[in-house]
Design goal:
Layout lengths: L1 E2 L4 E6 L3 H12 L4 E4 L14 E2 L10 H25 L10 E5 L2 H16 L5 E4 H7 L9 E5 L3 E2 L2 H15 L2 E3 L3 E7 L2 E7 L3 E10 L20 E11 L11 E6 L2 E7 L4 E5 L13 H14 L8 E11 L6 E4 L5 E5 L9 H14 L33
Helix pairs in contact: 1-5, 1-7, 2-5, 2-7
Length: 397
């Protein structure tokens, strides 16, 4: 066993966009911050489409989450302006709006009900006829029956966002350990750091578990604080829009096609992202012919012209999902251990508010009011955490 030469105030386990924003905001508060991940900026951010869709992502039964998503969406312009200035990199943020469309009478009825829910929730959303939808987006199929125009739902490029966050962390003094964390380090009933894959021990005053879909697999977690996070697979397709076809779409377009949701996100660089499947397949990240076919089939019904576009990439990733599809934020029953995980399909959208929430938790110990409904203890009363933690094994978690 080797010990790191220096201890830190905060150790962040996990280097996706949630772990990165937590580390960046922590370092900005003057806390000595360390982050451990074999590939910072990787993970779900490399697959996500980057829709900032607080309004069009509203689902029945998830109204509690709405306050957090709307709050984070409002923070985005200032957040990306600061991040781009600090990092010197662009994030691909576009204030382009979103159009949700219906292709048949059932889709139209669904959208009408969703529109009513949006209005009851105090959100801004405008109903358009099929003709009005096609006037906004001429490439839409003639059969579009109507849609919802949401000018406040925008987009960002998650890959650029992740890269900018890595740079911002480095410039803020965050120390990176580009390796797996083998197990949590628990001393006298308190989280005090972690053991890396090579046996190095990192000591820290506080630990933030931001491991995405892998969060529940970290060894050494007492049973009482194992987060109820599971992986949900999503497949995406990326096409290239040649200049001769530009502009193909001016905004994000979404639809429900025979019960399956599909979206098309046009990037400023000419990329068109089509996604995403929702599959309960455990840890499988295989891109399947069926998944790609379904996405292209549904997208083709929306925009027949996509069949002329070159295929650039197919990818599959894992969304970290909780039983209520909402994140786990803040202190756990184990002193010194905090969670920032379980963001499901809203990880990119919730990046700004998560960073601010975790910074406040780490500096004051208090969970801000906007995040209190998402405390890790909401799934049951905390149980007494056993100590000490079990001995490390040979392989990383």
């Amino acid at each position: 066993m080797r010990f790191s030469a220096d201890s830190s105030d905060v150790l962040v386990v996990g280097g996706g966009i949630i772990g990165l924003v937590t580390a960046w905001r922590s370092a900005q508060q003057g806390l000595r911050t360390t982050l451990a991940d074999p590939a910072p900026g990787g993970g779900a951010a490399q697959v996500a489409a980057g829709m900032l869709a607080a309004v069009t992502e509203l689902h029945y039964g998830e109204q509690t989450l709405l306050g957090l998503t709307v709050d984070s969406a409002a923070r985005y312009p200032a957040f990306v302006a600061e991040l781009e200035e600090v990092s010197g990199q662009e994030t691909g943020f576009r204030a382009c709006g979103t159009l949700s469309v219906a292709l048949d009478s059932d889709d139209r009825a669904y959208l009408r009900e969703l529109h009513a829910l949006q209005l009851r929730s105090g959100l801004e959303s405008e109903w358009l006829s099929g003709r009005e939808c096609r006037r906004l987006e001429p490439m839409l199929a003639p059969g579009v029956r109507g849609g919802l125009r949401v000018d406040g739902d925008h987009q960002v490029d998650p890959r650029r966002l992740a890269s900018a966050l890595v740079t911002a962390c480095e410039r803020a003094g965050v120390v990176f350990h580009r390796t797996w964390v083998r197990r949590l380090r628990v001393t006298a009933g308190r989280a005090t750091g972690a053991v890396l894959a090579d046996g190095t021990e990192l000591a820290a005053g506080q630990v933030v578990l931001a491991g995405g879909s892998l969060s529940a697999r970290l060894e050494g977690l007492p049973e009482a604080v194992v987060p109820p996070v599971r992986p949900v697979k999503g497949q995406v397709v990326r096409l290239t829009v040649p200049p001769v076809y530009a502009p193909f779409l001016s905004r994000t377009v979404r639809a429900v096609v025979r019960g399956s949701q599909v979206y098309l996100v046009p990037r400023a660089n000419g990329e068109l992202v089509i996604g995403a499947t929702t599959e309960e397949q455990g840890w499988d990240t295989t891109v399947t012919a069926g998944g790609v076919y379904e996405l292209l089939r549904d997208a083709h019904e929306l925009l027949p012209g996509i069949t002329e576009l070159p295929l650039a990439e197919t990818r599959a990733g894992l969304r970290p999902t909780t039983p209520d599809n909402a994140p786990l934020l803040g202190p756990t029953a184990l002193p010194g251990l905090h969670l920032a995980t379980g963001h499901h399909r809203n990880g990119v959208l919730l990046t700004p508010v998560t960073g601010d929430v975790m910074a406040q938790v780490l500096t004051t110990g208090e969970l801000p009011e906007v995040a209190r409904p998402f405390s890790p203890d909401r799934f049951g009363p905390p149980r007494e955490a056993p100590s000490p933690a079990p001995a490390p094994q040979e392989q990383p978690a």
